[in-house]
Amino acid sequence: MQKKGFKNVKMLEDLPNVGKSTAGDLRRLGIYEPDDLRGKDAFILYDSLCSLTGKKQDPCVLDVFMSAITFVNDGKPEPWWSFTKERKRILAQREKL
Prior knowledge:
- By secondary structure, the chain is mainly α.
- Helices cover 52% and strands 0% of the residues.
- The chain has helices at 20-28, 42-53, 59-74, 84-96.
């Protein structure tokens, strides 16, 4: 990953996997700085974005949210697609409940 280590991350766009569009989505959700992601749940953010926009977002958006939150918490950048398997597993578990 080419993004900066967390100490050098100042803007949402500095986060791994976060570009202009995702940063805009996060700002719509009240997330203005990378540190605002600490303690957030990617699934809640995703559901909130779907409600806010009135349409189901691409599930890859959830993967990007998961990657950004993980990076903020542990500083390890990973490609967004490395979260796809985990997202699918969690959603499958939730459907069973």
